[in-house]
Amino acid sequence: MKQLLIAERFCLIAHVFSMAFGLAGLLLILPRPELVINLPPAGQTLFQWGMAGGGVVYIIFGTAAVAIYAYRTLGLGATLAFLVPSVFLSLGSELLGTSTGFPFGNYHYLSGLGYKIAGLVPFTIPLSWFYLGLVSYIIARAGVGGGKGQLNWVRQIGAIALGAVLLTAWDFVLDPAMSQTSVPFWEFEELGAFFGMPYRNLAGWMGTGALFMSVAAFLWRKTSIKLDRSELGLPLIVYLVNFAFGAIITVTSLDSRFWFPTSLAVLLGVVPAIVLCWIAKPAADDITEAIPSLESALKAEIPSQRVGALRK
Fold first, then answer.
1. Are 114 and 56 in contact (CB under 8 A)?
2. Over 80: is that where the pLDDT of 286 sits?
Protein backbone atom coordinates (compact mmCIF):
# COMPACT_ATOMS: atom_id res chain seq x y z
CA MET A 1 0.00 0.00 0.00
CA LYS A 2 2.88 2.38 0.77
CA GLN A 3 4.34 1.80 -2.71
CA LEU A 4 0.95 2.60 -4.27
CA LEU A 5 0.73 5.84 -2.32
CA ILE A 6 4.23 6.84 -3.43
CA ALA A 7 3.40 6.08 -7.08
CA GLU A 8 0.13 8.00 -6.78
CA ARG A 9 1.85 11.08 -5.38
CA PHE A 10 4.61 10.90 -7.99
CA CYS A 11 2.05 10.79 -10.82
CA LEU A 12 0.06 13.64 -9.26
CA ILE A 13 3.17 15.83 -8.93
CA ALA A 14 4.18 14.98 -12.51
CA HIS A 15 0.64 15.80 -13.67
CA VAL A 16 0.73 19.23 -12.03
CA PHE A 17 4.31 19.95 -13.12
CA SER A 18 3.62 19.03 -16.76
CA MET A 19 0.62 21.36 -16.81
CA ALA A 20 2.71 24.17 -15.32
CA PHE A 21 5.38 23.50 -17.97
CA GLY A 22 2.70 23.68 -20.66
CA LEU A 23 1.34 26.94 -19.28
CA ALA A 24 4.80 28.49 -19.23
CA GLY A 25 5.39 27.43 -22.83
CA LEU A 26 2.03 28.67 -24.11
CA LEU A 27 1.89 31.96 -22.22
CA LEU A 28 5.52 32.99 -21.77
CA ILE A 29 7.70 31.36 -24.41
CA LEU A 30 5.57 31.15 -27.56
CA PRO A 31 4.73 34.89 -27.58
CA ARG A 32 8.49 35.61 -27.36
CA PRO A 33 10.19 33.52 -30.06
CA GLU A 34 13.52 35.19 -29.36
CA LEU A 35 13.65 33.28 -26.07
CA VAL A 36 13.53 29.99 -27.96
CA ILE A 37 16.12 31.14 -30.49
CA ASN A 38 18.53 32.07 -27.71
CA LEU A 39 18.26 28.67 -26.07
CA PRO A 40 21.08 26.13 -26.55
CA PRO A 41 20.31 23.25 -28.95
CA ALA A 42 19.35 20.94 -26.09
CA GLY A 43 16.98 23.56 -24.71
CA GLN A 44 15.35 24.07 -28.11
CA THR A 45 14.90 20.31 -28.50
CA LEU A 46 13.35 20.06 -25.03
CA PHE A 47 10.99 22.93 -25.75
CA GLN A 48 9.91 21.46 -29.09
CA TRP A 49 9.33 18.09 -27.47
CA GLY A 50 7.39 19.68 -24.63
CA MET A 51 5.10 21.65 -26.93
CA ALA A 52 4.54 18.65 -29.21
CA GLY A 53 3.88 16.07 -26.49
CA GLY A 54 3.06 18.07 -23.37
CA GLY A 55 -0.67 17.55 -23.76
CA VAL A 56 -0.21 13.80 -23.96
CA VAL A 57 2.10 13.69 -20.93
CA TYR A 58 -0.12 15.60 -18.51
CA ILE A 59 -3.19 13.54 -19.45
CA ILE A 60 -1.32 10.26 -19.02
CA PHE A 61 0.04 11.27 -15.61
CA GLY A 62 -3.41 12.50 -14.55
CA THR A 63 -4.95 9.21 -15.64
CA ALA A 64 -2.30 7.22 -13.79
CA ALA A 65 -2.67 9.25 -10.58
CA VAL A 66 -6.45 8.88 -10.51
CA ALA A 67 -6.35 5.20 -11.50
CA ILE A 68 -3.90 4.37 -8.68
CA TYR A 69 -5.97 6.42 -6.23
CA ALA A 70 -9.14 4.58 -7.27
CA TYR A 71 -7.46 1.18 -6.98
CA ARG A 72 -6.09 2.07 -3.54
CA THR A 73 -9.34 3.46 -2.11
CA LEU A 74 -12.10 1.71 -4.09
CA GLY A 75 -10.53 -1.58 -5.17
CA LEU A 76 -9.85 -3.08 -8.56
CA GLY A 77 -13.45 -4.07 -9.34
CA ALA A 78 -14.93 -0.63 -8.63
CA THR A 79 -12.10 1.07 -10.54
CA LEU A 80 -12.71 -1.03 -13.65
CA ALA A 81 -16.47 -0.56 -13.27
CA PHE A 82 -15.91 3.17 -13.78
CA LEU A 83 -12.93 3.11 -16.13
CA VAL A 84 -14.41 0.81 -18.78
CA PRO A 85 -17.76 2.60 -19.33
CA SER A 86 -16.21 6.08 -19.06
CA VAL A 87 -13.52 5.33 -21.64
CA PHE A 88 -15.65 3.45 -24.15
CA LEU A 89 -18.83 5.53 -23.87
CA SER A 90 -16.91 8.82 -24.10
CA LEU A 91 -14.91 7.48 -27.05
CA GLY A 92 -18.17 6.50 -28.73
CA SER A 93 -19.57 10.00 -28.16
CA GLU A 94 -16.38 11.60 -29.51
CA LEU A 95 -16.27 9.38 -32.61
CA LEU A 96 -19.94 10.11 -33.24
CA GLY A 97 -19.37 13.81 -32.65
CA THR A 98 -16.40 14.14 -34.97
CA SER A 99 -18.23 12.12 -37.66
CA THR A 100 -21.78 13.53 -37.48
CA GLY A 101 -21.74 16.60 -35.24
CA PHE A 102 -23.88 14.88 -32.60
CA PRO A 103 -23.87 15.39 -29.63
CA PHE A 104 -21.21 18.15 -29.35
CA GLY A 105 -21.57 20.05 -32.61
CA ASN A 106 -19.37 20.01 -35.69
CA TYR A 107 -15.70 19.95 -34.70
CA HIS A 108 -12.45 18.16 -35.41
CA TYR A 109 -9.21 17.54 -33.53
CA LEU A 110 -5.88 19.01 -34.57
CA SER A 111 -2.43 17.78 -33.55
CA GLY A 112 -0.84 17.78 -30.11
CA LEU A 113 -2.90 15.22 -28.21
CA GLY A 114 -1.42 12.00 -29.55
CA TYR A 115 -2.41 9.21 -31.90
CA LYS A 116 -5.95 9.53 -33.28
CA ILE A 117 -8.28 6.56 -33.03
CA ALA A 118 -9.89 5.97 -36.45
CA GLY A 119 -8.06 9.13 -37.53
CA LEU A 120 -10.57 11.22 -35.58
CA VAL A 121 -10.16 11.21 -31.79
CA PRO A 122 -6.83 11.34 -29.92
CA PHE A 123 -6.41 8.37 -27.58
CA THR A 124 -5.87 10.78 -24.68
CA ILE A 125 -9.38 12.23 -24.92
CA PRO A 126 -11.28 9.25 -23.43
CA LEU A 127 -8.57 9.05 -20.76
CA SER A 128 -9.31 12.64 -19.76
CA TRP A 129 -13.03 11.82 -19.63
CA PHE A 130 -12.15 8.99 -17.24
CA TYR A 131 -9.99 10.84 -14.78
CA LEU A 132 -11.98 14.09 -14.64
CA GLY A 133 -15.22 12.14 -14.68
CA LEU A 134 -14.15 9.94 -11.78
CA VAL A 135 -12.97 12.79 -9.55
CA SER A 136 -16.16 14.75 -10.33
CA TYR A 137 -18.36 11.78 -9.44
CA ILE A 138 -16.35 10.83 -6.35
CA ILE A 139 -16.59 14.38 -4.98
CA ALA A 140 -20.33 14.52 -5.69
CA ARG A 141 -20.98 11.07 -4.23
CA ALA A 142 -19.02 11.79 -1.05
CA GLY A 143 -20.86 15.07 -0.58
CA VAL A 144 -24.40 13.73 -0.98
CA GLY A 145 -23.75 10.27 0.45
CA GLY A 146 -23.90 11.24 4.10
CA GLY A 147 -21.24 8.65 4.92
CA LYS A 148 -23.29 5.80 3.47
CA GLY A 149 -21.46 3.18 1.45
CA GLN A 150 -24.52 2.28 -0.60
CA LEU A 151 -26.84 5.09 -1.70
CA ASN A 152 -30.60 5.00 -2.20
CA TRP A 153 -31.94 5.98 -5.60
CA VAL A 154 -32.54 9.61 -4.62
CA ARG A 155 -28.94 10.10 -3.50
CA GLN A 156 -27.72 8.18 -6.56
CA ILE A 157 -29.51 10.56 -8.89
CA GLY A 158 -28.21 13.54 -6.93
CA ALA A 159 -24.61 12.28 -7.12
CA ILE A 160 -24.86 11.61 -10.87
CA ALA A 161 -26.43 15.01 -11.57
CA LEU A 162 -23.88 16.89 -9.48
CA GLY A 163 -21.00 14.91 -10.94
CA ALA A 164 -22.14 15.70 -14.48
CA VAL A 165 -22.47 19.40 -13.59
CA LEU A 166 -18.94 19.50 -12.15
CA LEU A 167 -17.60 17.83 -15.28
CA THR A 168 -19.48 20.20 -17.61
CA ALA A 169 -18.42 23.27 -15.63
CA TRP A 170 -14.80 22.36 -16.37
CA ASP A 171 -15.60 22.55 -20.07
CA PHE A 172 -16.62 26.21 -19.71
CA VAL A 173 -12.90 27.04 -19.48
CA LEU A 174 -11.46 24.02 -21.29
CA ASP A 175 -13.13 24.53 -24.66
CA PRO A 176 -12.20 28.21 -25.11
CA ALA A 177 -8.63 27.47 -23.96
CA MET A 178 -8.20 24.52 -26.31
CA SER A 179 -10.09 25.77 -29.38
CA GLN A 180 -9.93 29.55 -29.56
CA THR A 181 -6.41 30.53 -28.53
CA SER A 182 -3.33 30.92 -30.73
CA VAL A 183 -2.40 27.23 -30.29
CA PRO A 184 -5.67 25.28 -30.63
CA PHE A 185 -6.00 21.52 -30.13
CA TRP A 186 -9.46 21.26 -31.75
CA GLU A 187 -11.70 23.50 -33.83
CA PHE A 188 -15.44 23.99 -34.08
CA GLU A 189 -16.67 24.16 -37.64
CA GLU A 190 -19.55 26.41 -36.64
CA LEU A 191 -19.70 29.65 -34.68
CA GLY A 192 -21.41 28.74 -31.45
CA ALA A 193 -23.70 31.11 -29.58
CA PHE A 194 -22.05 30.47 -26.22
CA PHE A 195 -18.68 32.23 -26.57
CA GLY A 196 -17.85 30.37 -29.75
CA MET A 197 -19.22 27.05 -28.48
CA PRO A 198 -22.58 25.64 -29.58
CA TYR A 199 -25.00 25.07 -26.71
CA ARG A 200 -25.35 21.46 -27.76
CA ASN A 201 -21.68 21.00 -26.90
CA LEU A 202 -22.54 21.68 -23.28
CA ALA A 203 -25.57 19.38 -23.52
CA GLY A 204 -23.31 16.71 -25.03
CA TRP A 205 -20.87 17.05 -22.13
CA MET A 206 -23.64 16.81 -19.57
CA GLY A 207 -25.28 13.85 -21.30
CA THR A 208 -22.06 11.89 -21.87
CA GLY A 209 -20.90 12.41 -18.28
CA ALA A 210 -24.29 11.48 -16.83
CA LEU A 211 -24.43 8.38 -19.04
CA PHE A 212 -21.18 6.76 -17.96
CA MET A 213 -21.64 7.87 -14.35
CA SER A 214 -25.05 6.18 -14.36
CA VAL A 215 -23.54 2.96 -15.71
CA ALA A 216 -20.82 3.07 -13.05
CA ALA A 217 -23.39 3.78 -10.32
CA PHE A 218 -25.38 0.75 -11.48
CA LEU A 219 -22.28 -1.43 -11.39
CA TRP A 220 -21.41 -0.07 -7.94
CA ARG A 221 -24.92 -0.69 -6.56
CA LYS A 222 -23.87 -3.67 -4.42
CA THR A 223 -20.48 -2.26 -3.49
CA SER A 224 -20.00 -0.30 -0.29
CA ILE A 225 -17.96 2.78 -1.23
CA LYS A 226 -17.27 5.06 1.72
CA LEU A 227 -14.85 7.95 1.25
CA ASP A 228 -14.51 10.45 4.07
CA ARG A 229 -13.28 14.01 3.80
CA SER A 230 -9.65 13.07 4.44
CA GLU A 231 -9.63 10.84 1.35
CA LEU A 232 -10.84 13.54 -1.07
CA GLY A 233 -7.54 15.40 -1.32
CA LEU A 234 -6.42 13.95 -4.64
CA PRO A 235 -9.84 14.27 -6.38
CA LEU A 236 -10.13 17.92 -5.32
CA ILE A 237 -6.54 18.76 -6.29
CA VAL A 238 -6.95 17.13 -9.73
CA TYR A 239 -10.23 18.96 -10.30
CA LEU A 240 -8.87 22.36 -9.24
CA VAL A 241 -5.56 22.21 -11.13
CA ASN A 242 -7.28 21.11 -14.34
CA PHE A 243 -9.76 23.94 -13.93
CA ALA A 244 -6.93 26.39 -13.27
CA PHE A 245 -5.08 25.21 -16.38
CA GLY A 246 -8.00 26.05 -18.67
CA ALA A 247 -9.02 29.19 -16.78
CA ILE A 248 -5.53 30.76 -16.84
CA ILE A 249 -5.18 30.19 -20.57
CA THR A 250 -8.69 31.52 -21.24
CA VAL A 251 -8.49 34.74 -19.22
CA THR A 252 -4.94 35.60 -20.31
CA SER A 253 -5.17 34.70 -24.01
CA LEU A 254 -8.72 35.78 -24.89
CA ASP A 255 -10.61 39.03 -24.47
CA SER A 256 -12.52 40.19 -21.42
CA ARG A 257 -15.78 38.58 -22.60
CA PHE A 258 -14.43 35.24 -21.46
CA TRP A 259 -14.43 36.29 -17.84
CA PHE A 260 -18.15 35.38 -17.84
CA PRO A 261 -17.81 31.67 -18.69
CA THR A 262 -14.82 31.49 -16.36
CA SER A 263 -16.86 33.00 -13.52
CA LEU A 264 -19.72 30.65 -14.36
CA ALA A 265 -17.32 27.70 -14.17
CA VAL A 266 -16.19 28.86 -10.72
CA LEU A 267 -19.82 29.17 -9.58
CA LEU A 268 -20.97 25.81 -10.98
CA GLY A 269 -17.76 23.83 -10.59
CA VAL A 270 -15.10 25.10 -8.20
CA VAL A 271 -17.38 26.32 -5.41
CA PRO A 272 -19.62 23.21 -5.36
CA ALA A 273 -16.58 20.91 -5.48
CA ILE A 274 -15.05 22.59 -2.42
CA VAL A 275 -18.39 22.64 -0.58
CA LEU A 276 -19.11 18.98 -1.36
CA CYS A 277 -15.67 17.97 -0.07
CA TRP A 278 -16.23 20.03 3.05
CA ILE A 279 -19.63 18.54 3.88
CA ALA A 280 -18.41 14.99 3.23
CA LYS A 281 -18.27 12.80 6.31
CA PRO A 282 -15.20 13.59 8.46
CA ALA A 283 -12.95 10.69 9.35
CA ALA A 284 -13.58 11.36 13.06
CA ASP A 285 -17.22 10.32 12.59
CA ASP A 286 -16.08 6.74 12.02
CA ILE A 287 -14.59 6.69 15.53
CA THR A 288 -17.67 8.35 17.04
CA GLU A 289 -19.93 5.79 15.40
CA ALA A 290 -17.73 2.95 16.58
CA ILE A 291 -17.94 3.91 20.28
CA PRO A 292 -21.62 2.91 20.84
CA SER A 293 -20.98 -0.41 19.11
CA LEU A 294 -17.92 -1.03 21.28
CA GLU A 295 -19.87 -0.16 24.44
CA SER A 296 -22.66 -2.57 23.48
CA ALA A 297 -20.16 -5.33 22.83
CA LEU A 298 -18.49 -4.78 26.22
CA LYS A 299 -21.83 -4.78 28.04
CA ALA A 300 -22.76 -8.03 26.37
CA GLU A 301 -19.38 -9.58 27.15
CA ILE A 302 -19.14 -8.63 30.83
CA PRO A 303 -22.31 -10.48 32.00
CA SER A 304 -21.26 -13.60 30.11
CA GLN A 305 -17.88 -13.51 31.85
CA ARG A 306 -19.59 -13.19 35.25
CA VAL A 307 -21.81 -16.20 34.52
CA GLY A 308 -18.77 -18.23 33.52
CA ALA A 309 -17.00 -17.27 36.77
CA LEU A 310 -20.01 -18.31 38.89
CA ARG A 311 -20.12 -21.70 37.20
CA LYS A 312 -16.49 -22.25 38.06
1. yes
2. no
